[in-house]
Amino acid sequence: MERAATPRGDGRPAAGPAELSAVAGLPLEAFRAEHVADRIERALAAEDVATTAELAALLRRDPRARERFRRSVAVSHSGLFRDPEQFEALEHRVLPRLLERAERPRVWSAGCANGLELWSLAIVLGRLGALEHSQLLGTDLLEENLAVARAGVYDVVEITPALRSRARWARHDLVNDPPPAGRWDLIMCRNVAIYLCPHAKAGVHRRLATALAPGGVLMLGRSERLGDPAALGLQRIERHVYERPR
Ligand SMILES: C[S@@+](CC[C@H](N)C(=O)[O-])C[C@H]1O[C@@H](n2cnc3c(N)ncnc32)[C@H](O)[C@@H]1O
User: What's the pTM?
Assistant: First the structure.
């Protein structure tokens, strides 16, 4: 994080990661250092400020700039049926197998961003006739993302009130909080851990593995894999998909 630690000649000391974490209200130390450095560089350019000290001062006084920075560091984008082949796998192979065992499946979109991942999953569960009996939870680090998810209004789609009433949304930090209570039949945690430092990422994967019900399934993003699934008590059943044996 070179720039964060380097004064830029205006005589003011640079703001370090700890100060930026505090003003942004984000655990910057949990993210990969190169990712944070990149997001700081982008913020300096986008906000037209010269130093990290100025950036910190801006984030302190301007809630909109603070939100922009938080959303940028946390990489808050998603999409309806993002990576469609993963939803194909869910609809045609993973969920039919899971639904044979779980009558009231508990599904959790961990790091749900604007909620479109959970809404996509809800549509698939509906197609399989399982939505009525499912419990749906979406969690994210950023409350501002959850506000979008709860509203369910997007450029591409508007979620009906009936569907909206089926999902719960909660703020949850995958790095620092214990998993939400109970065991989960399906956890989707896609494109979240890729931005985390190795230590935080390993801890997240460990906690997600323990949160699975017997026979439960963890789906990671299409560029992600578990280094040693067996060490977490899991077995790989598809690319990026791991099951806790019964
Ligand atoms: C790139 S989005 C992924 C959204 C969705 N899972 C998908 O793949 O379309 C990453 C999300 O992870 C969230 N996130 C980052 N760190 C997190 C943490 N420690 N705990 C919970 N969510 C986190 C971010 O706020 C962001 O909404």
Answer: 0.93
